[in-house]
Each structure stands twice: as structure tokens, then as C-alpha cells.
């Protein structure tokens, strides 16, 4: 029996002439929280659908907790929150959560679920009267009703404002802290940066980058040092320690560096002055773009 929570081995999926997933090799260990990033059409949703047994791979092997996706779904060992997961209309939040619990062999207690998803105050509200954020919290409760070891979230916070998003991630982190595996697809880089142990970037349904947020930012030379040239030449800036890229816009220079301290020290050693110096935080979005370009 495999140790992996999730394993894709050379998985492909084609729809007619469209190759949505082109040989995906990816394993997730138990207890990991992994962000799946990629441009529109990169194959994130298709991969997630195969993981949940909603689509059959055209070729390759896929397993969840050592068994097939369908087996894991039936046993409540994998739960999911999908982008357009419909909610049964005309019933209350509490009734729908109770109903979901009855489907699974070892569900979480209904009260616990309502508390985990912050639904207690709206338990008697009808599901078709919920705000976008409340509906997402309900989808989250339904996703964890079977107490799954693997939780899959496809752009879970797309309909949420900043505050709801923050509260939602606190809840997810609490759930993941019990040794569960969480895989989430997102377009929000800061969400991946703040919440994932590991970031996997896919393009054409294949992994192009896989590492911790820090590793990915470092690999792309993710920090920037900016200053005003003030009449001085930019010759030699590309030779400063750590510098990977030199960009000059008007009178401003931006250096992308893997070693901010060494770069700044060398700058001061080689110039009389470094006006308007700014050190930019590592930017995951830039890093991912640089690595997928
Ligand atoms: N049922 C389908 N029939 C035909 N083509 C499909 C089907 N589902 C997906 N595709 C195509 O497969 C590719 C991958 O789509 P997918 O939805 O998996 O990407 P994604 O990374 O989830 O994109 P997004 O970020 O926009 O949600 C796209 O080119 C898409 O048009």
C-alpha cells in the first residue's frame, strides 16, 4: 500500500483533439497542503475532476490513499469543494448538512460541522438565501462532512471578500492541522504563498515547477531592489552578487536578486549614492510567471 495521499502517474486526459492534461506526474504526501497554480486552461480543474472520479483518465494511473478515486469518494476519504458545486434549494443549511452526514460511513458530528464552517447563526436559513461567502462556507461543511483525509478545493475563495477569505483560510488551516492533506487550485498568489507548504505550477497539464513558496521565489530570483539612477551608468549592475535580471525604466532600475543583502552591500560599495532605494518583497506572481514563461 502506497504512503502517498494522492498519486498521479503519467496521467493524460484528452477531449477529442484537446489534450487537457498531458502526462501529469504528481504525488502528495499525507499532511501536506499543496497549491495548484496555472494559467486558465492549464488543466487544474480537469486534474481535480479525475482525482474525484468525476472523469476517467485517458491514460495513466491515479490513486487516492492507495485505492481508486471512486473508492475514496464512496468511503468519504476524499472530500471536495468545486467551483460550481450546486446547493440543494429550498432546504435549510442545517438540514442539508444533516443530510450530507447521513451519506457517509463515519461522518463528523453535525454540530461540529456547523461550528467548523461558522454556520451556526445561519443554520435555519434556506440555502437559496445565502450570500456568496456563506454559500462557500456551506460547501466547505459539505466537503468535510465525511471527515475526509484528503480535501480538494477548486478556487474555493473566488466569491469571497478579503475578510471572508481570511476567515475561511483560518478554518482550512485548522482542518489541515489534524494531519490531513489539502490540495487547492487558486489564481490568488498570496493565498498560495500564505497557506501552502508546497506549490505546484502546471501548464498543459504537466508540472513545470514544484517547491515551497520560498524555493519558488528564490529559483526565479524573486526579490527586487529598486533605485533611481540619478545620472550614473547602469553598467556592471548585472555583475553584482545575486543579481539575475536588470530592468531599466526611465531613470529607475529594478534588480531582481536571489541575495538581497549581498546586492545592496555591493551597490553601496560601488556607487557614491543609491537614491530612492526600495527593497521589494518576494513576489510569487512574478516568480511563477518567470518560471512558466
Ligand atoms: N469537457 C471538455 N471538453 C473539451 N475541452 C475541455 C473540456 N474540459 C476542459 N477542456 C479543455 O481542457 C483544457 C484544460 O481545462 P481546465 O478546465 O482543466 O483548466 P483550468 O486550469 O482548470 O482552467 P481555469 O483556471 O480557467 O479554471 C482547456 O483547454 C479546456 O478548454
From TrEMBL:
One Pfam family it belongs to: ABC_tran
Annotated ABC transporter domain residues: 6-229
Superkingdom field: Bacteria
Annotated GO biological process: response to antibiotic
Major subcellular site: membrane
Membrane topology: Peripheral membrane protein
Entry keyword annotation includes Transport: yes
A GO molecular-function descriptor: ATP binding
Assigned keywords, A-Z: Antibiotic resistance, ATP-binding, Nucleotide-binding, Transport
SUPFAM superfamilies attached to this UniProt entry: P-loop containing nucleoside triphosphate hydrolases
GO cellular component, one term: plasma membrane
Keyword Nucleotide-binding among UniProt keywords: yes
Record's subcellular location: Cell membrane
Protein name stated in the entry: ABC transporter ATP-binding protein
Source organism: Actinacidiphila oryziradicis
Organismal lineage: Bacteria, Bacillati, Actinomycetota, Actinomycetes, Kitasatosporales
